[in-house]
Amino acid sequence: MEPIIKVVRVADVGNKSAAGHSLDANHIDTSPKIKYFNKKNMIEGIEEVDIIGVMDEEDFTLGKASSHGQFLAGSQYVKGVAEKMVKTCPTALVVIFAHPVTAMTPLVSEVYKSAGWWHPDRIIGSLAIDSMRIRAMAADLFYLNPAYIHVPIVGGADACTIVPLLSLARPANQFSKEQQHSLIRCLRAADNELASFNENCGSWGREAGPKLSLATAASKFIITLARGYCGFRNSIASAFVRSNVLTASQFFATELQFGPGGVQKNFGLPKVSNIEVDLIEQAIPLINANVDLGVNFIKENCKT
After folding, report:
1. C-beta of residue 227 within 8 angstroms of C-beta of residue 235
2. 170 DSSP 8-state letter
3. In a 10 Å sphere around its CB, with 0-12 CB exposed, 13-18 middle and 19+ buried, how is residue 108 labelled?
4. Which residues, at least 6 apart from 42, have a Cβ–Cβ distance to it below 8 Å?
5. Quick check: bond before 100 cis, omega within 30?
6. pLDDT, mean of residues 264-277
7. Which helix (H) or strand (E) holds 54?
8. What is the pLDDT of residues 175-224, one digit of tens each?
């Protein structure tokens, strides 16, 4: 429904389940065209594109797979996709949605480095689902419309490393300590809560997951990038990128402004509350461990 998007290309690495959805979407009377490509034609599907979203190869059972387990399951797939991207469309903006984002973003960066096409502003780890969740949770607390709530996020891109800056939320940021702890706990436990709910819903619950919210968050984030790519001002969102914000961590999530080349401006780490300082300090070792996981995987497996 976003008019600046001209074409959406769906590269299906599964069992062609997206073919019918792509045909169905083309019957919607909006301007973007939906083009479907199967696994064998993936390279054709990513030729001459501006933005690529790297999704998980398979759905994970929420609350069951650890961050390390997700990495082991998806690392070979993400590496293979990154190698195709760097050969086919090396200047496209790359958005990493594949879990764990904190490890997969540096993994993709290392593939691009090995090929001589690395540019840190063009490889972006998504925080879209968590940004959307914390806005919805904060809005519920204040009985506000979530569309008018803004909460910056810093830290990493996984449940145990995400730090929402509630002290800088707009337009309302008068949270008590109890409310802050409650919101952070709910945000970090969202996947586990959904997994627990699904287990109690029989066969329907096993099929259910954050599909609607993930898809909505991903589309909103890609549209923000697309607006920045087209020169629209105020294309701002929190994301996980290669950063010099903290000397203690090479990759760090902050609020960013996007432009034609990807990250146009990094707003850095603002003055935050004591609670948020403690959470950031706790997150840094976990972020670094995930970054090392992605970097070392490429060093050990890259054939370039």
Report:
1. yes
2. B
3. buried
4. 11, 13, 81, 84
5. yes
6. 95
7. strand 51-54
8. 999 999 999 999 998 887 777 776 666 554 455 557 888 899 999 999 99
